[in-house]
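seq as requested:
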Amino acid sequence: MSHSAEDLEYMRRALSLAARGAGHVSPNPLVGAVIVRDGRVIGEGWHAMFGGPHAERNALANCTESPRGATIYVTLEPCCHHGKTPPCTDALIEQGLARVVVGSSDPNPLVAGKGVRILREHGIEVVENVLKDECDRLNAPFFHYIRNKTPFVVLKYAMTMDGKIATRTGASQWITGEIAREQVHRDRNRYTAIMVGVGTVLADDPMLTCRIPGGRDPIRIVCDSRLSTPPSARLVESAGSLTTILATCCTDPDRHAPYLAAGCEILTVPADADGHVDLAALMQALGARGIDSIVLEGGGTLAWAALRAGIVHRVQAYIAPKLFGGAQAKTPVQGVGVAYPDDAVRLSAPRVTQLGDDLLLESEVIACLQES
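struct tokens:
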């Protein structure tokens, strides 16, 4: 079904508003709303913080005139249940909206089409699936978590045009430019957690914080099968003020003690066939703790392990117009690798964004690794 240019225009505006809630609404979805009468925006809002009013109620509160008879554009189907706030369907009915234009359907079993049905039962015209793909993509982590209760995992890396993540000496700072690095920090603000392997901790001693004004630091997770993270690592020393989880197969309480004393959390998980952290089991454990999304920023070893375990849902490749060369220079995905092209992880056609001189390619995982 094709939609009018006006409907598309205002839904794009609603999408841009929704994104403003990034880092503040999890585990709720990002939602934006725009109220229009006779080609004029008379109110708009977004879900700004967890536990606060939803986008529709914020838009209604910001109206410059009565919304009776107007159209509201909302990126996600209005809720019809009592949660932290009353149902948005009630507010739209009470305020006399004549038309509701919806982007995504809500997969939450408490909504799942009921919101649209209630609105129609009250004589409100409802138009669905306007910019559905864009609206769905915005809330892919929320949709995945609602359905699976495990985190939505984004594998992110920066590489040169010849596919290197470091030089032959191991130097990697910086591959991309400042604009691309700012985007990385926006994603650290958006996703609930960031995960690396112990190899990255040993090589780079990172902080894994968000460095944008007003940003939120993600929960920091280190996959450390044998618990070899140095107690002097910056991640450990800052664990008293920044949530830090060490995921390990080590069950020795004496080994745990210095990390616990520093403020780290220890999450013991089973080992996989290779003796490393079982990443599928780790996702179940993190999901049970309410962690709905993770950006995976480790090196090539962890990237391969994550792909092999089938836990990756989206891939973000930042590509810099540089060439490092070097047969031994590291690549984004290492491990054993597949034997044949047909065994590869299959990705969707990439969305391409230019960030200064660099490119960001983003694809969804559509078929997991087929190892030979």
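The first strand starts at residue 32 and ends at 37.
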